[in-house]
Amino acid sequence: MALSYVDTSFVMKLYVPEKESDEAIELARTLVGEAVINSLTDVEVAAALHVRLGPVEGPEAYLRYRRNRETGMFLPVEIDAKTFVMARGLAERYAAQFSLRALDALHLATAVQYGLNVILTYDKRLRDVSAFLGLTVLPARS
Predict the structure, then answer these.
(1) Nearest to 102 by CA among 129, 78, 77
(2) Where is 120: in which H helix or E strand?
(3) How confident is the model over 34-44, as pLDDT tens digits?
(4) Alpha carbons 13 and 135: distance in angstroms, whole number
(5) Closest CA relative to residue 78, chosen from 102, 113, 49, 105
């Protein structure tokens, strides 16, 4: 599989046992070294793991994420000024139609900015707008 953008909703399934975690883990195995994240993902994952898992398990899970990130499981890219401008445009065009949230607009803009045609997400809003824009959205849903 070529480089693919993975958003925070997908990353979280790798560290917090949930209904779709097995599916996400299997997909992630095919993406090692090809899963692109942005610097926003680090912030969202840090906050979400600590909130969801609490003061003991949260830091442990976050440390696993950081180790995976540092050993190349994820390919980090920066959010530059051009990406913010693109995210603003996406929000202006699609926020009302798809209930696109600001941080999801940044994830989507990152994927588009870096020419990534595949996005892995469990976020319905992001799935819908990504599919509308012609990106391949995984995991596939009917």
Answers:
(1) 129
(2) strand 118-120
(3) 999 999 999 99
(4) 21
(5) 113
Range of the domain at 120: 4-138
Could you tell me the two tokens for 31? 């993406």
Q: What is the pLDDT of residues 47-90, one digit of tens each?
A: 999 999 999 999 999 999 999 999 999 999 999 999 999 999 99
Question: How many structural domains is the chain composed of?
Answer: 1
Question: Rounded to 5 degrees, what are φ and ψ at 55?
Answer: -70, -15
Alpha helices in 2-101 (DSSP H): 8-15, 21-31, 39-70, 81-98
Global confidence as pTM: 0.94
Cβ neighbours for 122, distance < 8 A, ≥ 6 positions apart: 9, 10, 13, 20, 24, 139
- Using CA atoms of 6, 8, 10, 16 in order, give the dihedral in degrees to the nearest 10: 150
Amino acid at 15: Y
